[in-house]
Amino acid sequence: MSSIRTVPTTPYPDQRPGTSGLRKRVRVFQQPHYLENFIQAVFDAFPERAGGTLVLGGDGRYHNAAAIQVILRMAAANGFERVVVGRHGFLSTPAASHLIRSRRAFGGIILSASHNPGGPEGDFGVKYNVGNGGPAPESVTERIWQISREIEAYRILEAADLPLGRVGELRLGPMVVEVVDPVTDYAALMERLFDFGRIRALFDSGLFRMRYDAMHAITGPYAREILEHRLGAPPGTVVNAEPLPDFGGGHPDPNLVHAHALVEAMSGRDAPDFGAASDGDGDRNMILGRRFFVTPSDSLAVLAANAHLVPGYAKGLAGVARSMPTSRAVDRVAERLGIHCHETPTGWKYFGTLLDAGLITLCGEESFGTGSDHVREKDGLWAVLFWLNLLAVRREPVEAIVRAHWRAHGRHYYRRHDYEGLDPDPAGELMEALRRALPGLPGRRFGELEVSAADDFAYTDPVSGERSEHQGIRILFGEAARAVLRLSGTGTAGATLRVYLERYEPDPARHGLDPAQVLAPVAAAVDAIAGLRERLGRDRPDVVT
Ligand code: G1P
Ligand code: ZN
User: Fold this and answer.
1) 275 three-class SS
2) Residue 138 confidence (pLDDT)
């Protein structure tokens, strides 16, 4: 016999979801009732949930297994009729998004702190996605936060842990728990979008080698099944394929700093032709050619320019979108294709309404996120398969494809400088001072650059009408150069300042320069304007991507 208990609780003041759900140290989530309070707040934000289906899974990080059992018991006590959960509690973020959509679920809970380190000392997170498969919009996350601040009790079923190791249906009080293979539906979706026959022929040719680094995170099982089993890539193509609770002690963020083992493997004399990596929950991607790094902004532009070569996108793109700090490389492609390019605030949630309304087909962010209307999250493996499809059709090296793209559209030199672990006060004051200085900036010269415009980015969603303010400071230096500054919304300790630098170069004779050198004047201008050195006491960024 199982019975529903109402457990009295007191609110925690810090349950406001950030750029991507509620993200905290594991120890914070392990406080009594902490997880329960937040989950109840999520459920209470949707009184109409009764009888609905919930999708549930996570990236396998430490605390995933324990949290899944609690959420299952709470879902059973809160009126859900069915929960679709990945075997062992595993689901990548894009696979969860797909399941929510394909099962017409009420929503989904994804347990992940994305690329943040895991383990008992690491981070944990909870994201709530709505019925379209995408992250809850800000109006919803703010409602959840309000409820969390007044919560008095939560409801939970008294029951033993469920065994989630085998596919099939289980009962939990009045609710059905359906354990599904986390990969099957997602792999089928990829087969519908991409030309698997052609990609298989590329691997079969023996002229092409690839290395995929799953970084001991969730995409290992997905990449093994799709790349090695369905596409015929040789065993061993996928490395670090086993998801581990602490990601093997690594930092599962696919960029030049944290995926350095892959970068090294791709820079040797006998390097493979194509390299790729994904993050903790499988929504980010990094694309490498032999001794060649494709910036995420360029990757988005190249995918848009070549989409007609891929079956799932051959009928053309409705439009594209990029987050504001992302380089404007894709804008040029859109212009040439005669389609609209939307500029949104940072965070995938802003693409959702545009995708739902059919205004865009592809979208992306400079932070190693690329995606399309096939789900409502960014999708790491999808981006890799898109590239594989292009490579299989064009049969050229990655570098040649990108260089040809630059010749046709010009090159957007681009870098992001992150200043991490800052004291939140001076970081906040820096942004405030910058805001106050904005009106006086146009016309001022910094070395060879002159400020033409500067603003605090605000966005009105063209579909929902929802307004989002203070989404980053933009400083434009004519047509060619741009700097953006904003504070991270995903950190769990201190503040992180992100400085995004961009400079456009139309002349192909100048496409082989060192990005650091080309961008040095923009970086110097930002330092002079914002006073990074004096205010933060830092003379160089912690991470450059
Ligand atoms: C970061 C990235 C942003 C991305 C988010 C979730 O957010 O910059 O593009 O959508 O992670 O993956 P931030 O920490 O900058 O708020
Ligand atoms: Zn992620």
Assistant:
1) strand
2) 85
Neighbours of ion ligand 2 (CB under 5 A): 114, 279, 281, 283-284
Same domain, 249 and 149: no
Give the closest residue to 378 by CA, choosing from 306, 284, 313, 300: 284
Quick check: CB of 490 below 6 Å from ligand 1? yes
Nearest to 461 by CA among 321, 300, 297, 301: 321
- CA–centroid distance, residue 283 to ligand 2 (Å): 5
Angle, alpha carbons 130-370-365 (nearest 5°) = 90
Asked whether 372 lines ligand 1 (CB < 6 A), one says no
* 432 and 443, same domain (yes or no): yes
Distance 114 CA to ligand 2 centre (A): 4
**Ligand 1 atom 6: residue of nearest CA:** 20
Instruction: Count up the domains in the chain and report the number.
Output: 3
Domain of residue 258, CATH code: 3.40.120.10
What is this structure's pTM? 0.95
Question: For residues 325-339, b (16+ Cβ closer than 10 Å) or e, as one string?
Answer: bbbbbbbbbbeebeb
Is 114 annotated as catalytic?
Answer: yes
Dihedral sign, Cα of residue 481, residue 487, residue 491, residue 496: positive
Residue nearest atom 11 in ligand 1 by C-alpha distance:
490
**Res 137: pLDDT:** 86
In the chain the first and final C-alpha atoms are separated, in Å, by 55
Does 323 lie in the same domain as 176? no
pLDDT (tens digit per residue) in 487-533: 998 777 789 999 999 999 999 999 999 999 999 999 999 999 999 99
List the domain range (segments joined by +) for residue 233: 186-409
Atom of ligand 1 nearest to the CA of 284: 12
**Sheet containing 238-239: which strands, arranged edge to edge?**
238-239, 210-213, 274-278, 285-289, 292-294
CB count, 10 Å around CB of 47? 8
pLDDT digits (tens, 9 = 90+) for 317-335: 999 999 999 999 999 999 9
Q: How confident is the model at residue 19 (pLDDT cuts 50, 70, 90)?
A: confident
